[in-house]
Design goal:
By secondary structure, the chain is an alpha/beta fold. It has one domain: Rossmann fold, CATH 3.40.50.150. 19% of the residues lie in helices and 26% in strands. The protein has eight helices and 16 strands. It has helices spanning 55-63, 82-94, 118-121, 162-169, 181-190, 235-248, 321-330, 354-358; strands at residues 2-3, 19-20, 26-27, 73-77, 104-110, 171-178, 199-203, 220-226, 249-259, 271-274, 277-287, 294-303, 312-319, 333-338, 340-341, 363-369. The protein has an eight-stranded mixed sheet, with helices on both faces. The chain has a four-stranded antiparallel sheet with strand order 10-11-12-13. β6 (171-178), α5 (181-190) and β7 (199-203) form a beta-alpha-beta unit.
């Protein structure tokens, strides 16, 4: 079952208010916060809810048959939902039939714009010595040994489940960027360069285009992100994220992303008991702090109500379609919107997903550079 949405590519220009520095990157007050510091690994429980089940089939449909074969791929992940994304991508790429030993390079990037994850990830790394942070470089990649041994059969970063993911992809190199020193210190402890010479880790703020390594620019056929763009709370932050994407794509490249639902005409109306989630609208007419323009809503997602022990909540931004399109166009990208897909199981055709399809929890987008054809 597929929800058909407008597949036409579209975009609109527009100016942005603010102060521009020498690198043409707007300086605005960050809209990010430390809301996840006290949630910890409770966030993993959201993966159990029906509301997120359509993610994997929707991503597979957007990538398309053969869309990953032999490609150099970049995964841009928000480590707030790090473990959820691990599981999602693990399922996605494990389901894709790849050519024999395709050469791929996968980079995992944290999209956050402030250090909000140090406490959030501490519970996940409780068995890791805190002294490892003393070995952490600042905004510098960790280099492999001069004469590295052959790549290990299992490559990984993060919590370790990417070992299977990267092995499935046949990756020859993996790079992890994160703004949190705690996250990088943990990765370094789990995957020292002496044992994992093909893994590279460094700290970077991925909302700032110039913060990423120059040598990585223009390297990827396919850039993919899940719950990355929706952490922008201003037009400039969203534009900068698109600029990061543009900088990583090679000529003819393609960007596929999962973000909050941009099409919901009723987004200002709260969704209570919605497939395991409560979505409470905090600001039904959210105004971007940099432009003074109404762009969508700010909402609070609540997980609990007896389904998840302890429960938790977090705030999100949900921008409208035209906001994404104009911010992407400022970065030189043109967006096309893809449909969402629900699981093909016994619930299909029973009406179970009807309300979800009317107001999905996410939207899928595809973007290419203005003036370029899609990266085939």
């Amino acid at each position: 079952m597929v929800q058909e949405t407008d597949g036409r590519h579209s975009g609109a220009g527009g100016g942005v208010a603010g102060v521009t520095n020498a690198s043409n990157e707007m300086q605005t007050t960050s809209t990010q916060n430390t809301q996840y510091d006290q949630i910890g690994t409770k966030y993993l429980e959201i993966k159990q809810l029906p509301a997120v089940e359509p993610e994997v089939p929707s991503i597979l449909a957007a990538l398309g048959e053969g869309g990953v074969k032999g490609k150099k791929c970049l995964g841009m992940l928000d480590f707030t939902t790090f473990s959820q994304n691990i599981r999602t991508l693990l399922e996605v790429f494990s389901s894709i039939a790849l050519s024999d030993q395709p050469e791929m390079r996968v980079s995992l990037i944290n999209a956050s714009v402030n250090i909000q994850y140090d406490v959030f990830f501490t519970p996940m790394w409780h068995n890791i010595s805190t002294s490892s942070s003393s070995h952490l470089p600042s905004n510098n990649p960790i280099q492999p040994p001069t004469n590295p041994p052959p790549p290990p059969p299992d490559l990984a970063c993060g919590t370790g489940k990417y070992t299977h993911l990267l092995s499935t992809l046949g990756a020859t190199s993996a790079t992890g960027h994160d703004i949190s020193p705690t996250m990088i210190a943990s990765a370094l402890t789990l995957y020292p360069a002496s044992q994992f010479p093909t893994l590279h880790f460094s700290t970077h703020d991925c909302s700032i285009p110039s913060s990423l390594p120059v040598q990585a620019t223009g390297s990827y056929d396919l850039v993919f992100s899940a719950w990355f763009l929706n952490y922008a709370g201003s037009e400039q932050e969203l534009t900068n994220m698109f600029r990061v994407v543009d900088a990583q794509m090679r000529k003819g490249g393609r960007f596929v992303a999962l973000t909050t639902d941009v099409h919901d005409v009723d987004m200002s109306v709260s969704k209570l008991g919605f497939y395991g989630l409560d979505v409470l609208v905090l600001e039904p007419r959210y105004v971007a702090p940099d432009t003074g323009v109404e762009v969508g809503i700010k909402a609070r997602v609540k997980v609990g109500g007896g389904q998840v022990a302890g429960g938790f909540e977090f705030d999100v931004f949900q921008f409208r379609r035209e906001v994404y399109e104009r911010c992407a166009l400022r970065a030189g990208l043109r967006i096309g919107w893809r449909g969402v897909v629900v699981p093909d199981d016994e619930r299909r055709g029973t009406g179970y997903w009807d309300e979800w399809l009317r107001r999905p929890t996410f939207a899928m987008l595809e973007a290419t550079r203005v003036g370029e054809e899609g990266g085939g």
